[in-house]
Design goal:
This protein is an alpha+beta fold. The chain has ten helices and six strands; from the N terminus they run αβααβααβαβαααββα. A four-stranded mixed β-sheet has the order 4-3-5-6, with helices on both faces. A two-stranded antiparallel ribbon has the order 1-2. It is globular, with a radius of gyration of 24 Å.
Length: about 260
């Protein structure tokens, strides 16, 4: 009798252990499915550090980045949306894939010909956007940054972005906007809430649509192609010195950091 009881207890233990293993396996499948769902929907963000560590990496660019990447310590601060695609973002905003461009429009500052190009999305009403533009400005001699205003934050974003895009020299209009951004009455370039909408406002909305379609979410956010299959993300978490380090195209002669 005692022997039969022991055998029964051992059988129960084996079944419980097997159940635990199956439950763990099922949990892993569920976790993977949840991660895949987040990747597909763009419902959250993940640090660069996690993206290059394994399961959540973006196939379009993460394969080129490992912990041996000298930029790792800097780029792990960047929060990248699930499903973001660096190559697709560049293809869309550069016009390489016209069907993705959909009427979007940007501008850049004057500078030397042949500079490497970066693409940067911002909102005129975002304090982080304004601060980041000021960090990027010292790099404009070396990097041709294309600026794309979007309308995410409030009613001023669309008209102000349109006013900048519609100016004869958009970069000067952006400079004027930044100077007056601290004015609580206008928060940048003066615009009207009612009345006829600026002609370029549709381009501002198109910029936002394109950005979402390539997996973008928050602003400010940018991408820079530093080499074959290397798409470097950057956002408001990076300092000016960080940006000087990561916005570098190999040993490009066009990159000449100022001391």
């Amino acid at each position: 009798m005692m022997e039969e009881k022991k055998q029964e207890e051992r059988g129960v233990s084996r079944r419980m252990a097997a159940g635990t293993v199956l439950a763990a396996a099922a949990g892993l499948v569920i976790a993977k499915d949840a991660a895949a769902s987040q990747l597909a929907t763009g419902s959250s963000v993940v640090p660069y550090a996690e993206l290059i560590d394994g399961a959540l990496e973006s196939a379009s660019w993460a394969e080129a980045h490992t912990r041996a990447d000298p930029h790792y310590a800097i780029l792990k601060k960047v929060m990248i949306p699930f499903g973001w695609n660096g190559k697709k973002m560049i293809d869309a905003f550069s016009g390489q894939v016209p069907m993705l461009q959909q009427g979007s429009r940007g501008f850049s500052y004057p500078g030397p010909e042949g500079r490497p190009v970066a693409y940067f999305v911002f909102d005129t009403q975002g304090e982080n956007s304004i601060r980041m533009i000021e960090r990027l400005k010292p790099l404009l001699h070396d990097i041709d940054i294309h600026f794309y205003p979007v309308a995410y934050l409030n009613w001023r974003s669309g008209p102000q972005g349109a006013q900048i895009l519609g100016a004869a020299e958009p970069w000067r209009a952006l400079d004027r906007h930044i100077v007056s951004f601290s004015d609580p009455e206008t928060r940048g370039l003066p615009v009207n809430r009612t009345g006829e909408r600026p002609a370029m406002e549709s381009a501002v909305w198109a910029n936002g649509k394109v950005y979402r379609e390539v997996g973008g979410r928050d602003v400010p956010f940018g991408v820079f192609k530093s080499g074959p299959n290397r798409y470097v993300p950057f956002d408001g978490s990076l300092t000016e010195e960080d940006l000087r380090t990561v916005l570098r195209k190999g040993d490009s002669p066009y990159y000449s950091p100022r001391k």
